[in-house]
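Quick start: what a row looks like.
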Amino acid sequence: MAVIVTTQVRGGWSRARGGTVISMAACVLWVSMNEGPSSAAQRDWRPSPETYHWLLPAHHEAVEVVELHPGDCYVIRQVDGLVYFGDPLPGVAELQRHLGDPLAHRVEDADEHPECTREGCLEISRVSQAITTRVLEEGNRRVTRRGNHRPSPLDNMRGGAYSDVGSDARTRFRQTPEQRMAYLHLLTASRDNCYEARVPRMLTIHIRDRQYRADRTGFYSGYLYLEHHHAPVPGRVVQRHSVEVEAMNR
């Protein structure tokens, strides 16, 4: 049996068959139910941005910083340190060994993390400062390169840090889209922009040098900013939705 619904229109009243109206209302209700908290949570769910502190002693090839997911937005916000590409200065090689292995760890914020206070980081800071002082006082500045250096044919295309998110030859800079020098990251960060990951990859940071030498001395360090733009991790959205539903039922 059709239900007759009376509605007011200009100049009088009109009647419409309720089957159509009710069907439309049911459709809207169904869409609303399926676009409820669960879908909204799935669309809006996104982890807070993360900042990673990384340090790459020059006698190592690279430091692994963080695993990226497709859509993640990342950029090097700060870079520091220097690397000496000449023969090691007296005493510096021994200091270099005390720098140990590359490290990367998450911090709350680069502005609130002026120096690493984790176990071993303070010692690394002391040693790296000693190396920097020795190189600047006694080394040849022509073979000294800072982290934000822009290599050119005049300096044998070496020096400066670069990121790599999946090239075929990760230990060699080939100017591929997956590789970017730190100075490009800094320019991008100054525009409040970042780079987008295309595929799942481990982001690494390297020292640009045509010939890898284990007797390089010095270090590069910095902070990498990451925004998660990938699809929600299974289980987390469901968990959040359950909490929201529980709060609504209270």
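That is the whole record. The mean pLDDT is 77. The chain is about 30% helix and 30% strand.
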